[in-house]
Design brief:
210 residues, TIM Barrel, two-stranded antiparallel sheet, 7 helices, globular, binds the ligand O=C(O)c1ccccc1NCC(=O)[C@H](O)[C@H](O)COP(=O)(O)O
Length: 210
């Protein structure tokens, strides 16, 4: 089956077009002001996504006011919750907006894996990302990978996406080792923090099997 690719941290119409041209399925918009990839509501609302691209709004412990504004102003097809949202909060957000929810789970060691089943019970998708390095400002988008062998042999009850430190060079190996059918990347397709590189996006999508 054709893999699904998500390119996260898009800020311009040109970014969106490059991602769609590369055949990626999802484009992520980061609503986290401290990120070099952050978009504000006005910028995001003015973006024009190609029809084929599904927009994912990425938020970190967002309150209802921010989520209400995103839903009201931007045509997003999925919400990515990338903070410390509890299972109850995930369920409440899903119920309130009626959109698919992807819950990010940070992984460093085997001890982080039980959270997967907990969130599979309430979310539509799981995104497995590397735990942020100590002192990092961002909870994701740090270009750090985790030990992919931790996921080997796992039986999944929901669709899931592999993320964290993926690049055009290592994405095929990550998919092979984990069996991931969906992959997500941000810094691995940038020429500078927050600046997406169309050639790297194409290379990543091709290496992922698109
Ligand atoms: O990308 C960010 O700046 C970001 C900020 C705050 C929370 C999450 C963020 N990114 C989450 C993503 O979905 C990234 O694509 C994922 O963490 C992988 O990033 P990278 O390791 O840079 O490929």
């Amino acid at each position: 089956m054709r893999p699904l690719v998500k390119i996260c941290g898009l800020r311009t119409d040109a970014d969106l077009q490059s991602v769609a041209d590369a055949g990626a399925h999802y484009g992520g918009l980061v609503f986290f002001p401290k990120s070099p990839r952050a978009v504000d509501l006005d910028t995001a609302a003015a973006l024009r996504a190609p029809d084929a691209l599904k927009l994912v709004a990425l938020v970190v412990d967002a309150d209802d006011a921010l989520l209400d504004a995103i839903i009201a102003r931007i045509g997003v097809q999925m919400l990515q919750l990338h903070g410390h949202e509890t299972p109850e909060r995930v369920a409440a957000v899903r119920q309130r907006y009626g959109l698919p929810i992807m819950k990010a789970i940070s992984v460093a060691t085997r001890d982080d894996l039980p959270a997967i089943a907990t969130y599979e019970a309430v979310a539509d998708q799981i995104l497995l990302d590397a735990k942020a390095p100590k002192g990092a400002i961002l909870p994701g988008g740090n270009g750090v990978a985790f030990d992919w062998t931790l996921l080997q042999g796992r039986v999944w009850s929901k669709p899931w996406m592999l993320a964290g430190g993926l690049t055009p060079e290592n994405v095929a190996e990550g998919m092979r080792l984990t069996g991931a059918a969906q992959v997500d990347v941000s810094s691995g397709v940038e020429s500078a923090p927050g600046v997406k590189d169309p050639a790297l996006i194409r290379a990543f999508a091709a290496a992922a099997g698109l």
